[in-house]
């Protein structure tokens, strides 16, 4: 139930074009086939829940620059990958995953799926290239209802602390505000604007409620909202993705071609040089 003002659809990257299609091949979605699936996840879902919903899958930290390319080349992990699922991804402390990494994986016949966070964003941007998206957040980006990258951004702790989120994503705040039964439409609109005004690292339900009180919003509504159990749209979309993967046969994507710019060729050389010796 994410709500945002309608706007123009997101521009699609012009760097990649479709080529001739080839017949899809399928294999049953079993625990054995899941062993060739890698899931990039961090603050949205704990690793043990990912393993429970998609047994046998490789659980990796949030995706960052070079990770998808390394997986497509069989470098990290050092095995053949046939399906990549992106949930969370880095974007500030290190470079975000390139669009061309994803289209290169598709070119090599690897399925790429996304949901909830960075995955939802990239899936909306690369739908025309064959990346698949799942969930309400992805649909909102794909329809152009959400356009800002910071809608899904959260601050989180490092891996040794299980990537625990210390802020709330704007998409989660939007969804909770839209669902909360005690709020009037006027209060909903005011709360969304207050949430948007905050830097993504400062966005939490506690901060939003404090901002609402400072703005003079009805205290009875805010008190009831504070006690109301908050939904987690990102986690729900991530679970939906994993259940979809668990029940969907792996299908080779349609053939595409990723243009080889100088920068991309250089990146290919660097990642290929890091391949483990066998």
Explain what you see.
This protein is an alpha/beta fold and 278 residues long. The chain has 2 domains: 17-150 and 234-271, no CATH class; 160-232, no CATH class. It is 40% helix and 10% strand. The chain contains 12 helices and 9 strands. The chain has helices at 31-34, 47-53, 67-72, 99-107, 118-125, 136-142, 170-179, 185-197, 205-214, 219-227, 233-247, 262-273; strands spanning 17-18, 26-27, 37-40, 58-60, 83-86, 111-115, 132-134, 250-251, 256-257. It has a 5-stranded parallel sheet, with helices on both faces. A two-stranded antiparallel sheet has the order 1-9. The chain has a two-stranded antiparallel ribbon with strand order 2-8. Helix 5 (118-125) runs parallel beside helix 6 (136-142), helix 7 (170-179) runs antiparallel to helix 8 and helix 9 (205-214) runs antiparallel to helix 10. The radius of gyration is 20 Å and the shape is elongated. The termini are far apart. Mean pLDDT is 89; it is low at 14-28.
């Amino acid at each position: 139930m994410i709500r945002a003002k309608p706007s123009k659809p997101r521009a699609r990257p012009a760097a990649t074009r479709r080529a001739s299609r080839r017949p899809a091949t399928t294999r049953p979605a079993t625990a054995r086939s899941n062993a060739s699936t890698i899931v990039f996840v961090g603050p949205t879902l704990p690793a043990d829940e990912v393993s429970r919903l998609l047994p046998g899958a490789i659980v990796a930290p949030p995706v960052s620059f070079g990770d998808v390319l390394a997986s497509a080349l069989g470098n990290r992990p050092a095995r053949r990958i046939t399906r990549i699922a992106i949930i969370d991804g880095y974007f500030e402390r290190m470079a975000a995953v390139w669009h061309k990494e994803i289209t290169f994986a598709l070119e090599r016949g690897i399925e790429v799926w996304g949901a909830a966070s960075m995955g939802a964003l990239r899936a909306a941007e690369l739908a025309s290239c064959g990346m698949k998206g799942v969930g309400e957040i992805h649909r909102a980006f794909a329809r152009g209802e959400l356009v800002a990258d910071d809608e899904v951004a959260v601050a989180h702790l490092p891996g040794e602390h299980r990537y625990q989120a210390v802020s709330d994503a704007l998409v989660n705040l939007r969804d909770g505000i839209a669902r909360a039964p005690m709020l009037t439409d006027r209060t909903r609109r005011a709360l969304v604007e207050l949430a948007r005004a905050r830097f993504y690292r400062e966005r939490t339900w506690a901060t939003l409620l404090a901002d609402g009180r400072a703005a003079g919003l009805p205290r009875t509504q805010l008190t009831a909202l504070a006690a109301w159990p908050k939904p987690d749209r990102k986690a729900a979309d991530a679970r939906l993705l994993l259940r979809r993967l668990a029940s969907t046969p792996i299908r080779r994507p349609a053939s595409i071609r990723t243009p080889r710019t100088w920068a991309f060729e250089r990146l290919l050389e660097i990642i290929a040089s890091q391949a483990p010796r066998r």
